[in-house]
Amino acid sequence: xxxxxxxxxxxxxxxxxxxxxxxxxxxxxxxxxxxxxxxxxxxxxxxxxxxxxxxxxxxxxxxxxxxxxxxxxxxxxxxxxxxxxxxxxxxxxxxxxxxxxxxxxxxxxxxxxxxxxxxxxxxxxxxxxxxxxxxxxxxxxxxxxxxxxxxxxxxxxxxxxxxxxxxxxxxxxxxxxxxxxxxxxxxxxxxxxxxxxxxxxxxxxxxxxxxxxxxxxxxxxxxxxxxxxxxxxxxxxxxxxxxxxxxxxxxxxxxxxxxxxxxxxxxxxxxxxxxxxxxxxxxxxxxxxxxxxxxxxxxxxxxxxxxxxxxxx
Length: 313
Fold this sequence. Notes:
alpha/beta; two-stranded antiparallel ribbon; 12% strand; disordered N terminus; disordered C terminus
């Protein structure tokens, strides 16, 4: 078995991007595994016993195309497979202990149904995934990163509702940046979300952002380089809609006194608006409340306080 596993490559080749050179795909062999861990091995220890003790494997940037040959690593917790040529997520059901899986910058197009109940962090940035799916059994997932999928210019990352529901109370960090996304409302199902990155998408409507920052545990959210960020008073509108837990928006801290003041002014003006509608319905009079200003927010004559020194994006 060990002699058969010692072969260092598999038949097949690919052309390296930007060059005319061809390089052989590599197979995950015993030699590859032994050179990819720093775990000390006893001189009397068999390969099988040793591999069963391995918890971390560094298999990144090794021209791997197929995930295979890891079935003896039954206690594996952390697996690095980024910067390879992997096309399919497969043959990973050998370990019930796998918690961290790094698959960035491969050629993966779909997420199969992952029966990985211990998985806590999954990194799939810079692949070709078009649908967020396959997570219905990942009931312990805390962090998911799917940024910058290589999609057609007219395409965008889609979402499977069942997968979102399965991780709705465990997921704390999500990166979906650079995926042509226009709607964020499906992600409201992620009730326990704390960190959210949706930069470089195609979000036009402010309400799509407001529902995310209103999540009760959200602390950091970033929406840089979306069309809605260019709207007048964008930052004030988002802060006015956020939960009390949000401390950083688009990489810029939100002082607590600023959040309280903006919310107070918005609440006050909503009350003025309600009073105006009531007066209009009774005597036909009309009052137009002042708009929330840019930079230094000056309250109108009916407002009881002034907010200054706020940098408006």
